[in-house]
Structures are given as C-alpha cells and as structure tokens.
C-alpha cells in the first residue's frame, strides 16, 4: 500500500538511458515533488529539464483506467476477467488454427525488466514463438549486433566513471547535450576541470558541438569510412597495441585490409567523408596520441542500414589500441531508453532467447529446462519492421502492443497503421486513453500502471540495475504489465509457470536464470541476487552487473581479453564498403534526418503534459541550411511541405547554419494526436540493417517546397 502523505521515495527517471536516480514526494493531491537523488551514481543529484518536470506529468488526465473491448466498432468498459478471458481465448484460437508464429508481442524499452521477462517467457517458452520484439529495435539493436560480432556477447565494456577519467571524448552520431544531458554535463565537467578534449562527429552541428575541440561534420552515412581511415592511420603510425592484438583478438589482418580499401589515407578519408584533410588529420592525431579515449556512439550510428558495420568500425579502433574496458578508455554505446538494457537482458529482442542466451541448440535446451517450457521457440522471430510487414501480408494475425506507439514511431508509419487494421486480434496495453496506436483500432485496451505507480527494475547504459518504485496509488483498475501477462498465461493453461505474486519473485527467477549453468562463459550474470528477499529487493541499491555469486558486482570487461567468443578472443570485423541504401534524385534532392529535441520524449504522451517542456520548441519543424532555403524558396518561420516517397508533412521552417547543405532535420515527437502534420514516421523509408534489423532513420531522400 502506498502512503499518500509526504513520504519520499527513491526511484529512477523513466526517460533516457542515463537512468538518473529521482526522489519523488507525493503532494497528496495526485502530483509529486521531484528532485535528483544525490546518492544515485548515474546523476549524483542532478536532473535535466525532462526529469525535473516529472511531477507535472503524473496526473490522471487522459489516463486509461479500466479494460475495454471493442463491441460493434465501439470500445466498451468490461471487467478484467472478461478482457483477460477474451485475449486468452482469441490467442488460443489463432495459435490452434494458424500456429504459434501467427501471434506476436511488440514491447517497449519503457517496460520494467520484470514485465519484459514475463512477456518473453510466455511467448518464447510456452506459446512457442519468438515473435517478441520491441521498440528498442529502432534504438540500439545495431549496437547489440556490433557487440555480439566483436565480443561474442552484448557487453558494454565501459562505465560512466570513464567519462570523468578520459582525456579525449569522441561523440559519434550523438546529440548528448539534448538526449543524454546529465552524462554530457559530466563530460563537460571533465573538460573544465581536467582539460579533457571533446570531438563531435555528426552531420548536424548540434548543441553538443558548441564550445568543443573539434567538430567533424561528416556526410551522412560515412562514419564507417572515417573509422576505417582511423584504423589504417593507427596501424601505419605505430599506434597499435600489438601485444593486446596478438594475445586477445582475431581477424586483424582481414579487417585492416578492408579498411585500407575503404579509406587508406587521410586524403581518401577526407574524400569519402566530405571533411577537410586538416580536420581528418587532427582527429587521427588526437585519437592516436591519447591513451584515455572514450568513443560514445548513439542513434546517428545505430539508426542506419549499415549501423552494425559502423559500430564495428569504431570497435576495431579500440581493439587495435587495447583501449577497452580500462579506466577512461573504452567504446561506449549510449542507449536511448530507460530500460533498453533490461530488455536486452531478458531477451526482449526477437533474435535473443533470455539472459543473453541465443537460439543455439544448447542454449535453447538450457532455457527450456530452466523454465520447464512445454513449447520452446526454436528459431528467431520477426524483428520490428519485418513483423509489421508480416501483419500487412496477413501472416501474423494477432498482435499485443505494450507501452509503445508504433503508429507514430516505426518507419513508413502509414503502412504500419494500415497493417494494424488487418489484425484479427489487436491488443494494446497502455497508460493513455488515446494515442495514434489506440486510434488504429485495437480490439482490446488494457490499462497498465504508469511511472510512479509501478514497481520493478531497469538497467541503464552502464549496466547499472536500479529500482523504479511506486510512490502513487494504482489508479482506477490499472495493473502491472507482469500481472496482466501472467493472468493471460494462466488462462492459456500455463498456471504453473506464471503464478507470480510480486515483481520481486519474477526478479529472483530472472537472476537465477542468468546464473543457471553459467560457468563464466556468459556475460550477463546476476546470480548473487537470485535469493534476494522481498525486503532486500525493495531496498536494492543501484548496482552494475555482472553480480556473480561470490564475487563483488560491476567488474570491467575486456581490459585483459576474456571475450565471450568461442576462442575467447575479440573479433575485428571487416565492414562493408559504406553506401546509403537509397539515392537522392531530381525529385528528392535532400536527405531527411530525424532525431529528438531537448525537452520532449518519444511521442510526447508524458512530456506533452508539461507546459514548461512544451515551451522549448512548441511545434514540429524542419531545419534547413540557408543556401538550401534560398534554393528551394522556403523562408525562416514560414511553413513548408516536406515530401518523401512515403508521405508528406507541413512543418515550420527553421533556417540554420547548423544544418549541412543537402540535408533536412525533423524531430520525431509529434503525432496525429497533437498536430495533423507532424507524424514523421510516415515519411521515413523502411530499409533495415542486415545484421541487426534496425531501420535507417537518418537519410530518406526528400523534397521541400513552400506551403
Ligand atoms: Fe531523466 Fe535522462 Fe534527464 Fe537523467 S538525463 S533526468 S535519465 S531524461
């Protein structure tokens, strides 16, 4: 039971992957006072604008508060038992008729680890399909694939402390000043107090690139060429750690030969990337001469049809210099969402099983025995874009969406919306009564607890597990996602595996699976927490994995080798020659780049409730270079029509030198619910990375004209 008086609760911010600790004090009338948690090692008391405004977003306006079933086209309130019976009955019918692969879950990096665990277990172990994917596919799955190729596991070798200790911080495809603000402040403090240098590599000159040491405005899609050039430069200028390479890695010669063919000199790198030779040489020299380098990469790298190769081109440079997993020296993937990492840990991606295990025969068998699973999935499921394509073809007939808004966020979003209308069973678990996905016509709406009401764990970008704790009472009939899933599982006949009484019980099982038959060959292991009591779980302080039984938690990875590949060696990967998947042409002469703004989160269902946050950039816009504005006749502060082969939008024009010639930038947040024109997913092409399945979101050919 929640004490509604002024008791302060330690919890974690529900927005970005920094995972800041929050102190929340209910105000007794449904709101809460919010402060940063000085004891949380992610933020030491600091919060950014979004985190600070959380108290303004916890009201019940627009909340979905009871289950609903569509009856003769209209959603009607029903009892929980009726809604759950209906979902289970329809799922059972479709599986019996069309097989398990005809049903699918589409999850979210907003879910808690315990929710994710139950969803994954139900589908992969009991229903018998791996059609469980998540919006994290759109966010960091190329980093996952790159890590697996290089390290043999999805391991993040670095930690936030490295940002304080590095002498050079290289940000690639990351507007951290807006998207990971508390971490960026930490980097800036390092610069001010220790003289660390900062390099930003990005086609846009974002706020992150203000007052730094070097800005490299690369042409879209050329990051691989830049890091291939760097790899060659390190090899030709005596900067390799030959002992580290010889003792701990494989594939060096092939990867270097490929890098030479892509960008074998400073001149070739400059030509490939559109940079000046002087800037390329300056970057190479800084990287070469600085032992403590952290390279941070985010969506500008991941959201690409060659995202995995970009990740590996970066990792190659760190493996070649042995700068990995050491204090102040490591590659570092910045995750977008609050629990993208927790989702990865439980297997929330369609190509993973659970606890970082994959669809290999021994690991399938291990998970099957642990779960006592009657119908374990034996092959990978459909990744996000593939999943909605299969729905559109009529192959997947039942979909359950939890805590995400794919009608806005997926590429080619109009097709996604149309596909949803073809579903025989369409279930949405949500906090809100209305968003674009809810408007797409689900047959069943299930009210889930929101941030502040639900309780469980999340994992941030540095592998740190923190508690999200409830500090507000459950409103209406809203329930935890794990409870809703478990109730459906029981109705499907799986009472034995889903008789959970609490999130703590689920967490213990998740921790036990991570340690099950793990002789140290799997990176994700939190076995030390498998017997945690309810009280200890409730009091859990933020801790980094691994947390193996009998060992202190939070070891660094790979400083001395010890990779998770079959031979224990880190792998250099020869990337493909960089090339964008689509061409510009006379009708579509520009490249459309998408991204976030400072004060909004995803599709604004929470941040949109705060007037303060809305004041920063109040309407959807398109940013364009002054030369392009002249060329295409659009004027600052007027409206323009942006058109791609997939859709069009009317947007406010912002003319800015920040934008590279030949490119446009549009924010992702607005939807048909808050503007008739800002639903950007409908403009974005649907090309996926071949290794990760992550869609390209940064380079759709586009045109602009005055409106
Ligand atoms: Fe929340 Fe991220 Fe801001 Fe921290 S940096 S307060 S986690 S949005």
From TrEMBL:
Asked if Ion transport is a keyword of the record, the answer is no
Instruction: Write the signal peptide boundaries.
Output: none
Q: Which residues cross the membrane?
A: none
Keyword line: 4Fe-4S, Iron, Iron-sulfur, Metal-binding, Molybdenum, Nitrate assimilation, Oxidoreductase
Residue stretches making up the 4Fe-4S Mo/W bis-MGD-type domain: 6-62
Cofactors (names):
[4Fe-4S] cluster; Mo-bis(molybdopterin guanine dinucleotide)
Family under the similarity heading: Belongs to the prokaryotic molybdopterin-containing oxidoreductase family. NasA/NapA/NarB subfamily.
What protein am I looking at? Answer: Nitrate reductase
Q: Which residues of the full protein are shown?
A: 3 to 709 of 900
